[in-house]
UniProtKB/TrEMBL annotation:
Residues 214-262 form a coiled coil. Keywords: Coiled coil. This is HAD domain in Swiss Army Knife RNA repair protein. The keyword Coiled coil applies.
């Protein structure tokens, strides 16, 4: 990999929305409309950076997680600023594997987490886009947010704070323009980007991230393996239960068939003296002679049962015909 020096004259802007382009009144919980006035201020800032061709906007706002809201933002900016603002397509990651240790906002852990995570996400984006956006890792970037991100040392000189209930103003643009003048030149950015590409500290950070991810995957694999073993154990138990139930059902069906057969023999024997005599004779026989006689009796009784079933069906059909006629 190498750094394309022609990319180093650009800028990257990390953009929050609520409190920047969408003023949030005090004592409310967000919502409301994007501000045309604030968008015009952003347009002016983009122009000061060299125009939309020289600027990449990276969404750091929670809006980045909602495609419909990103579409709403791009549509509104195009309506209010035309081609003066680039389309927002980039976004910071949702959280980072490695979390910075910080001491600010010790009495407000919720705010501490919000600020820390946003800053970590910005720097993670910088470090994962070295070749695509060398200008950023080279220092030609800044973030616009209504949270005070500059309590974090790494953000100083790269941060524009806006007032939540007002949003971006012309005065903020003036402040940003003054900050821009102190950012590295394209040549200095190129040198920084080239150094970052070979920085052993950044490579070690990637190694640590992969170690953490590997550890998480190993835990997930161990959990999945245990769950699979448990499921397989349950399958064995359920298979045994199924086998027993199938055997019980088969035995029950055999018992019912035997009961139906015995009942049929009893009923038909009352109507057919020859059958009654054969049954009585069978009780006096043993061995093969008994088996042969029982088989003949069963065949005869089965024929009688089939005939009875057929007669019943014929009567039912005849009844239907009479009903129709």
């Amino acid at each position: 990999m190498s750094i394309d020096v022609s990319l180093c004259d650009r800028y990257v802007v990390f953009l929050d929305i609520d409190g920047v382009l969408l003023p949030v009144p005090k004592f409310t919980f967000g919502g409301g409309d994007l501000s045309g006035r604030c968008v015009q201020c952003l347009k002016r800032l983009v122009a000061a950076l060299g125009g939309r061709e020289k600027v990449t906007i990276v969404l750091s706002s929670t809006w980045r997680n909602h495609p419909a809201m990103v579409n709403r933002l791009n549509t509104f900016m195009q309506k209010e600023a035309g081609d003066g603002i680039p389309i927002v397509a980039e976004r910071t990651p949702n959280g980072t594997v490695l979390v910075s240790s910080v001491t600010y906002y010790a009495d407000d852990l919720s705010e501490q987490r919000l600020v820390r995570d946003r800053v970590d996400e910005v720097f993670r984006w910088l470090r994962t886009h070295i070749t695509e956006h060398p200008e950023a890792i080279g220092g030609r970037w800044f973030a616009i947010d209504d949270m005070k991100l500059d309590v974090e040392e790494r953000m100083r000189g790269h941060f524009l704070h806006t007032q939540t209930d007002v949003g971006m103003t012309d005065a903020d643009v003036d402040t940003a323009c003054a900050m821009i003048s102190s950012l590295p030149s394209p040549e200095a950015a190129y040198a920084e980007a080239a150094a970052a590409l070979a920085d052993p500290a950044l490579k070690q950070e990637e190694i640590e991230i992969h170690k953490v991810l590997q550890s998480r995957l190993e835990v997930q694999l161990a959990t999945a393996t245990a769950q699979l073993a448990e499921a397989q154990g349950k399958i064995v138990v359920l298979s045994a239960e199924k086998k027993n139930l199938v055997n019980e059902l088969a035995e029950m069906q055999r018992s019912m068939e035997d009961m139906r057969y015995r009942l049929a023999v009893y009923n038909f024997a009352k109507r057919y003296p020859s059958l009654a005599a054969a049954v009585e004779l069978s009780d006096t026989k043993t061995g093969a002679e008994r088996r042969d006689l029982d088989a003949a009796i069963r065949t005869f009784v089965k024929l009688l049962m089939d005939r009875k079933k057929l007669q019943k069906k014929m009567r039912s059909e005849a009844k239907k015909v009479r009903h129709v006629s």
